[in-house]
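Self-study notes.
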Amino acid sequence: MTMAEAGSYECLRFRLQGDASISVGYWGQEYVRSLVGEIGEALEAQVVERAEVNALVTEILRNLMEKHAEIDACDFCLEIGELDRLKELEFSDRQSQDRVCLYLISCADYLPEPENKHALKLALDLYLMAKRYTHAFRVANILGEPELVPLEQVPPGSMRVQLELMQTPKDWSRHYHDVAQELEILEAKTPDDIYKSHLVESGRRLGTLLGSTHMDSARENLAASLVNAFVNAGFGSDKFITSSSEDERRNWIFRNRAHGMLSATASLGMIFLYDIDGGLAEIDKYLYSPEEYVRAGALLAIGLLSGGRIADDCDAALALLAEYVESENAHMRLAAILGLGFAYAGTHRMDILELLAPTLADASTPVEVAAVTALALGLVFVASANADLAATFIQAIQDHYSEAFAGVDESKADSAAESAKPSQAEEAQARERMELEPPSDSAHRRQADEEHAAQVADRSVQANGFGNTAELGEADAAKRPSTAPNSASRSENRNESTFRHPLARFFPLALGLLYLHKRGLSIEPVTDALQAMGMNAPFISEMVECCAYFGAGDVLALQRFLGWETGLAPMAAAANAAGESITLQMSLRLFDRILQFGSDQQRRAVPLALGLAYVSNPRLEVVDTLSKLSHDGDAEIAAGAILAMGLVAAGTNQARVAGLLRELSAFYNEDPSLLFVVRLAQGLTHAGRGLLTLAPFYSDGAVLDPVSAAGLLTLLVLCLGPGSMRETLLGRYHFFFYALALAARPRFLITLDADSKEPVPVLVRVGQAVDTVGQAGRPKTITGFQTHTTPVLIGVGERAELATNEWVCNAPVLEGIVLVQRREQISEHEARP
């Protein structure tokens, strides 16, 4: 073994020529490892045939399993490309099987396609062979194919009940209230309880003496409505809109103006989150209001009730919203379509497709309605890779996209403009479509006027942050100056689409949502189709790729994203790194480089990217970075950083972030728009009074929830691009903040008795998770733990384990609702014939 020349394979040749009756382990473990290395090299060099070493490979694998070297056995099978041989092995105990399956699941993150899926499916098969259906279902969720573990194959018993709880959440509202009662947080909170204005009141009095302005009442009431919705989410009560006094409820809604009434009414959907029956009874009265914005808000509230997670056997949302899909009232039509997307997110319901597809396929549909329809269908069919729907989206993009300049750069557009001058009718139609800049020469004079108006607006923005361009009424929105990019910014946007309508970016987002977390091979037909149709606009293909690699942790994809020249590059890097610790650490350094040397568009996207990568995970270094960026001279960077602080601390009640946001409320007291964003961030920090998380990963951070990721992307995509946040979330589309309801998920651990199905207190240890994959023996899986009695709250990066041998459970991970049994009861059950 030690004296042979490299490439001679003497150890392997002597073994093949020698006496096969002698056990391969007779010569010791080092001899076996030498054989393993030589077999892999010989097969790769084609020195031996696989048939010659088949018997030896089987013998080596059995020896490794007997010596509890399961990781070496997995590596050997990976090296020779025969993972299926692991199915033929016998595991000495459940721990041995766990070591093999966990190692395969961990290796899948670093294997190329399609080998990564092969490793996961092997782990799934091993669990199914051992009849560990809940563990198999967890692997099926990692694959994105939960149907691989059908409930019908599971025999009746506690494991089947646990699997039902994992597949379809039940009684979330009841357990939600039980946990709140146990933690003594049932009392409703007001926005003032969150703002803690008395701590910064002295600074405000000083600002008043100096003649500073204060947030206008309409914007302040809108901020309070949104904050109230997120803070009291899921509790079914607050001190405003669910007040016992009818006058107080009505007065609270009508304190808002125009679209503000829509968001105020829609907050009922957040307050009654997961309680469909109770919410419908409260919302019903608003469907008959004479005010159209109130009726539209009620329709959106109906869609928010399920949070994209709770199934409704009565299909109340479909029954109530379907009749408004073709409504003549634009606000009610948008609210109904968006409500359907929220209510049935991730369900892949074909009847929803049949209902909404005609609206999307009609080329005469207004851009606003078509874009929201595409988003709704993208939410319903998220991560489905539905090829027919993808073709429909591509056709819709073509119908609502400026065909003259699609996929060409600025120099080509200038030359094309000389030979093709559009008519006045074509120009009027183009105002509602996405278009690459610049327009034709016949429109240069109009563009010069718009640029002059934009420069005047920019000077007012510089004097007062965002200015007051985000008024809540339609009349104010109509007065808003155009935000067409001027010639100075063309070098930055040379390869980026400029969307004339602020919601037009939902078209590429909807297309990308179909392939969320599907990686590169699945999107090749889509990118080829876009190129074949002449739509080479980078924003479209890059958005599809950003969604496809969400949570993949692919280093090669990360390097490719850094070569993009659009503002989507940091967002794609964050989406790719989300959920993978090593790639996240790498991305932090990359974002620092972009802040120093990147373009303005990329720098403005960095805070949003940090918020996406660290949702509900307020790491110290991330909060420090965002705190610095929140004081940036660029108002868009500051607004993005403030919103990202809210996302990073969402549902954690972290005192440090809450203190920083209070300081920012005093700092931006003179800027109504930025103060509005600060209020929203404060509401997100205390979302669900600490019972909710917006993190898109669950089950010990191994499983991506596509509905949660889609909700986060819906909000953040509206913030990309110059002036985008001002035109959307800070304008009349503030109700898209409710897309975060799709990302919300209870972060409690509650244990139910397997017999009575009622909560039972169980001792558990909660601490920081430790990666023990591949380690020998039985290492500790958590560190810095504390012992609690359920129910308990579990944050991002934390893990829980049973602290006593009195109870056992079938759940692969202690999260959410877990069924437990006493150990002696299981013994008696097993003793029965």
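Second protein, same conventions, sequence then structure:
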Amino acid sequence: MDCYTANWNPLGDSAFYRKYELYSVDWDLKEDLRDCLVAAAPYGGPIALLRTPWRKEKAPSVRPVLEIYSASGMPLASFLWKSGPVVSLGWSAEEELLCVQEDGAVLVYGLHGDFRRHFSMGNEVLQNRVLDARIFHTEFGSGVAILTGAHRFTLSANVGDLKLRRMPEVPGLQNVPSCWTILCQERAAHILLAVGPDLYLLDHAACSAVTPPGLAPGVSSFLQMAVSFTYRHLALFTDTGHIWMGTASLKEKLCEFNCNIRAPPKQMVWCSRPRSKERAVVVAWERRLMVVGDAPESIQFVLDEDSYLVPELDGVRIFSRSSHEFLHEVPVASEEIFKIASMAPGALLLEAQKEYEKESQKADEYLREIQELGQLPQAVQQCIEAAGHEHCPDMQKSLLRAASFGKCFLDRFPPDSFVRMCQDLRVLNAVRDYHIGIPLTYSQYKQLTIQVLLDRLVLRRLYPLAIQICEYLRLPEVQGVSRILAHWACYKVQQKDVSDEDVARAINQKLGDTPGVSYSDIAARAYGCGRTELAIKLLEYEPRSGEQVPLLLKMKRSKLALNKAIESGDTDLVFTVLLHLKNELNRGDFFMTLRNQPIALSLYRQYCKHQELETLKDLYNQDDNHQELGSFHIRASYAAEERIEGRVAALQTAADAFYKAKNEFAAKATEDQMRLLRLQRRLEDELGGQFLDLSLHDTVTTLILGGQNKRAEQLARDFRIPDKRLWWLKLTALADLEEWEELEKFSKSKKSPIGYLPFVEICMKQHNKYEAKKYASRVGPEQKVKALLLVGDVAQAADVAIEHRNEAELSLVLSHCTGATDGPTADKIQRARAQAQKK
């Protein structure tokens, strides 16, 4: 243990800091880091180096080289920079490289050097070049802030949703600030800058002068400033060699340290651990690294070569030409276990386990000591927690073996934390491997989450490892394996050296029917890469027509899209394709396409009936469908034409179509309608009133109601209305007019073809029993009982029923016998039934 703590450095009495190597790297750099623009992403992210940046002493013909490496030094991309001079580099939260140029353009590249997009930081930059820039991260995303030649600041808090904000002007600012940084306060990004001995805070509305509380006197300039990883704390390096540390709101001072070095540092970053009360700042010069905090002494390291600092959530990464190291505060659990002469329960448990492996009785002594104090659960938990913060796998195993040993002597210790730590460390050790190059700590891993880590593995095209992690952690397929396979397939379609057939087959063999995988998304990526035929082949595996059709339309494969839409049985989808085809093809080709698709043609006709009548007529003409064409003209005659002449002309066209369709009935009926319309117009002219658009029966009825009996009879003869129908019409009309004498004359004009029961019914409907009784006596024998019952003569109806000896009539009369008054009649019917049964 004493050897294990050899690289621990105390800072005051309450904290230790240690620096250990992550990787031994071989960059093969031709220039020092000081001659490169450098950008390293947090959370063990990639490193970008822009070699030979634009300098006056360099020959303008030399093109700079942009190189991207993993944290372990494995090359990921390298290409000549062919655009304008670059001011600053930085990584977004999605691990996209942002390159800010002097002209204000920001070029965005992927991890493998693929160009993604670009955007501009405003028109002002075109006239005043960019002097300096910062890429920063907030809860809203990744932002960019620039300082222009006019000494004005412009920023965007989220490059994914670009909204430029020009910050207020700083009064009297004539030169470039000695230092500046981004602060995130109250969900907004602010800029803190130093001009001589003064500090200014720029927000969206104003520029405010601020003063750090408790700052040592004699400061004439601020040389460097740093904000913590979580934007909660701020450090200021002054020209007097003092480092002021306090809250980012500049309302509280934490401490101040005099480093006795007045030379401006190359870098200054915070080094703090989540939920730790210790605060420390790491300051780097050319050959010296200093860790300072709330202690009278500092920790100093000698730098053998140019180094670069990368602030992390729980420490600082330090890389140079030959090594990549991590500096951080020793976690409490590790300190309790490993510090010299520690009697913490975790330290005793670790010793007990080691002695047990040696088969020594001291193991029992250590274990009894822990149990007597009742600290065995705490000891197990300390060992589990310390294992998470160890980088060396051997030490992780040693601590986990100690935890497992201690668990054996506990009855109810929950195994979840132990199992989860084993899983997490296995994942971390896998991604820390030199060939993977993501040196995540346990705290960073928990903050980043497994989903984001998987995304980063996918971004590096490490699909097998990502799938193995998903299977090992037993993640749901939709969140794990399916999603990764979909990304793999999208990458696969970009391999243009493989034939479309082979790529489609390989993707289908690998994906099959994996839930959560959309072949349409993969096909869309293939189409975006210019591989249309591959996209069509991939769409054949897509089971959802609703996903196939839109992409086929986008690829201008409309006829294939129509076939897929028809196969799906989704009418809305078919209509979508039809409307797209209508706009894409000329009229003739569109109609020819429809003729080959009967279902689509039928649906389009339904659409035209409600939306485009003229197109519907053209369809019928093209198909020589005279029957439907005739029906179309009949509908059109009533829907579109108001003048009688136009309506008759449309009906004549319809009649001609029906004759061509050999539908003589429809043709004759149409001609009769034309005759009726002409007659109705003549009746309106001669008699006034409303006749147009009445049916033949209504026309006759209207004439009778108007007293035009002769005209009504003539109309009936002209249109061959049967006598029975005419009598019904006249009977109803006269009863409505209550022309009872005229009705009686009409009934006696000749023998009624409809009988006289209708007369009784109509009179009773008009509540005229007197008139009804006149016709009841004239009703034939077979309807006599019904007529008498209608006029309320139950007794006579009974007599007739008895005379007819009809059981149905007797039952009908009996059902109308109600109350005491009809009692004798009912008895009479019962006696008649009895006599009939005797016989």
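Instructor comment on the second fold: The first strand starts at residue 8 and ends at 10.
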